[in-house]
């Protein structure tokens, strides 16, 4: 059974790649749809996009192209991978638009929206989405301390049926937890499915096994968890090449705590105005520090008067990182911030990405296979992912022989 996932950003793509790999599937991640020959030996593959930050026409075109390219693959399971907080708007990263385009192009017989990811502290109950915050408490998503004020796509509605109706997908049916185990046909198509814990995911898998294929699943990596339960514990590589570059474009409280807790780095605050209007200055500053063998932690300041939109600043950050990656300035790179991660990897344009190991829930170590033969370890994390000591954990994995860029097999 061929499983294909289409991710709306790169941090999410790497998380689903990790989930499938830990389930024992042969899987790989691409930036553009691969050929049949390229994936002949795989059980699953993914396509990482920047859809989360795309506006209407660009998003429609991207999804149309992907749907057309996937037709020869005839996947049984199509997973539109979106953020577990489902933040989206009519103007930017519209999940309903992506669903509608993929439905038109691939004609799924069954469409499911999975409304939670218990492994990350995301839950759906009676169609309402809840998420654990950095304080450890679970909040309704429209009262979540971060998501209610997200700088690009704030969540103002917890009822996912209302949320999708606002995005352009009205009359969404609901399979709540009481109805999940009752059997019988689904209450509608598409249908929103509640999930509170792993037993709900197992029940949903059994319920959907008899629904017609192909199936379009929309949701976070819990879709992959539901379809393919984990078969083996995550294995981390023993070491990673140095030096390490950590770039912080996220403004979340968890990332701020990780920056504050980090030790052993040359810490650099990059003025957003400088990156917006004089990008050579931060580039040469970081290049010099890395060339001297320093581990570098670079974070954007909080200046919002730089004149660029959030998407424009994410692109400028991505351009900076792509220049550094092209120079092979760092042996390992960690990027905090979903939009920045996606745009930076697309600018680097590796042929494919594979999974190396798991640092923590939602934070995977991957390896980018670049077209020049270089293999660059990359760690991409969303703003709310990882423990407070995450950056130090990665730093302690770096080999002492700095500037040894990974170029071995695998």
Topology overview:
Layout: E1 3-7, H1 10-22, E2 27-30, E3 44-48, H2 56-70, E4 77-81, H3 95-106, E5 110-114, E6 122-125, E7 128-132, E8 138-140, H4 160-167, E9 173-175, H5 177-180, E10 191-193, H6 198-208, E11 215-219, H7 222-227, E12 244-248, H8 253-261, E13 266-270, H9 272-277, H10 280-291, E14 296-300, H11 310-326, E15 332-336, H12 338-348, E16 352-360, E17 363-369, E18 375-381, H13 390-396
Parallel strand pairs: 1-3, 1-4, 2-3, 4-11, 5-10, 5-11, 9-10, 12-14, 12-15, 13-14, 15-18
Antiparallel strand pairs: 6-7, 7-8, 16-17, 17-18
Helix pairs in contact: 2-3, 10-11, 11-12
Walk me through the structure.
The protein is globular. Helix 5 links the parallel strand 9 and strand 10. The chain has an eight-stranded parallel beta sheet, sandwiched between helices. A seven-stranded mixed beta sheet has the order 13-14-12-15-18-17-16. Strands 6-7-8 form a three-stranded antiparallel beta sheet, with no helix packed on it. It folds into two domains: 225 residues, Putative sugar-binding, N-terminal domain (Rossmann fold); 153 residues, Four-carbon acid sugar kinase, nucleotide binding domain (Molybdenum Cofactor Biosythetic Enzyme, Chain A, 3-Layer(aba) Sandwich). The C terminus is likely disordered. It is of the alpha/beta class and 410 residues long. Helix content is 32%, strand content 22%. It has 13 helices and 18 strands.
